[in-house]
Amino acid sequence: MAGRPRGRPKSYNPDLALWQALETFWSSGFAATSLDDLSAATAMNRPSLYAAFGDKKTLYLKTLQRFASEMEKSLAGDLGKAGSLSDTLRAFYGGAIELYLSGPEGPRGCYVICTAPTAAATDADIRQALAAILKEIDASLEARISCAVAEGELSQEADPAMLARLAASVLHSIAVRARAGESRDALQSLAEGAVQLICQPHPPASKR
Amino acid sequence: MAGRPRGRPKSYNPDLALWQALETFWSSGFAATSLDDLSAATAMNRPSLYAAFGDKKTLYLKTLQRFASEMEKSLAGDLGKAGSLSDTLRAFYGGAIELYLSGPEGPRGCYVICTAPTAAATDADIRQALAAILKEIDASLEARISCAVAEGELSQEADPAMLARLAASVLHSIAVRARAGESRDALQSLAEGAVQLICQPHPPASKR
DNA sequence: GCCATTTTGTACCAATTCGCAAATAATTAT
DNA sequence: ATAATTATTTGCGAATTGGTACAAAATGGC
């Protein structure tokens, strides 16, 4: 049962509020988002925000973790399904493009790629969080591509780690291009080009 | 001769000051950089800054243009030299990596890719400037790759516009990865992988 | 009913933000 | 020299910033 904790009940849903904060940062980035903005978006007053999530930077780091965990779920879903590598990658890119174009006030790209780098140069914690997420993307793709090599879908000569990092690179670029206003068609075409280049039967990128 | 303009002479060098402002934005991004920071970096007091470059956003836009024009010079240099496409691309990526890792206080990635997207979602002017610069990178690479196709270095089946956008995508990713702290080795290896994938003799990415 | 506990709401703080007005300084033109 | 022109300096001011102190409110335990 667990019952209620003890004192006055929270008037907000922590998971929801965290996501609302994330969306606010997503629009304006870390520095340009004020505590007033966050307070308005979450319908929590400042002291509640502070008590629940710590200071602004701590809250931002928590939204990065939250996005990473949502992304992980989605990655596992897209990359985990049965099907050819090319179809899997198409679904992967397709889902990302839809997400990146789905902002309530226009396209906004990837939350992490488009907001964290700015703050990463001067803040080691944010830099580390960004690096961890990039690594996770690389690793998820590498796992799926290794699989394709093992099953003979890709040549044994193919280098899964390298191909994964290249595939991730196109994702990063799509993230930025979406926020810059590129059309869905242009993004989808870029993704398709990446799929064809990566999934070709005779890979040129021999291990060095 | 042109002589001196008329009144009191400027005590600053506009080109230098613009670059100093750019470097300041490069470290902290648009929103986190204050006019005091800019004033200190340029050794200009606030009203002089304002008179010379307009308000903060206008100044930022001018630094984006400045970076784009420097980049254009550098691109023309790297991509314009004689040599195989693969060597040309190696030089292109190599130069970018050195620049991205060369920050006075640690690696800072690409100025445009790592600072403009954050502000681009809410500011149409910045978004437009970003889009223009992305387009310019694509176009420069496409010109060089078209050349390679015309000279038979790449198959006639190759799609220069697509390959250019893929090559640019890897550049964008390197820009972000550098700021996230990836090692020079990792970045160079990624670049080499991109070169090999793009410059293979039998391209799979047929035009659609 | 009364106390302990937790959250909320209001108000406030010191510091910083961007932008500008007005006076001062340095130069050229006449 | 004097006027005209341009840049710099000082200092302001209204607004916003991130963060907190303190009292009021809402719950559970007894």
Short synopsis of the structure:
Two copies of one chain form a homodimer. By secondary structure, chain A is an all-alpha fold.
Structure description:
2 copies of one chain form a homodimer. With 208 residues, the first copy, chain A, is mainly α. Chain A has 9 helices and no strands. The longest helix of chain A has 27 residues, at 124-150. The N and C termini of chain A lie far apart (58 Å). The interface between A and B is large, with 61 and 61 residues. The first copy, chain A, binds a DNA duplex (30 and 30 nucleotides) through residues 3-11, 34-36, 44-48, 50-51, 55-56.
Number of strands of chain A: 0
Overall body shape of chain A: elongated
Strand content of chain A: under 5%
Which residues of chain A form runs of ≥5 with pLDDT under 50?
Answer: none
Approximate helicity band of chain A: over 70%
| Distance between the first and last residues' Cα of chain A | 58 Å
Could you give the order of the helices and strands of chain A?
HHHHHHHHH
Largest sheet of chain A: none
- The chain-level mean pLDDT of chain A equals 94
Oligomer: homodimer
Structural class of chain A: mainly alpha
Rg of chain A (CA only)? 20 Å
Number of helices of chain A: 9
Question: Largest interface: which pair?
Answer: A-B, 61 and 61 residues
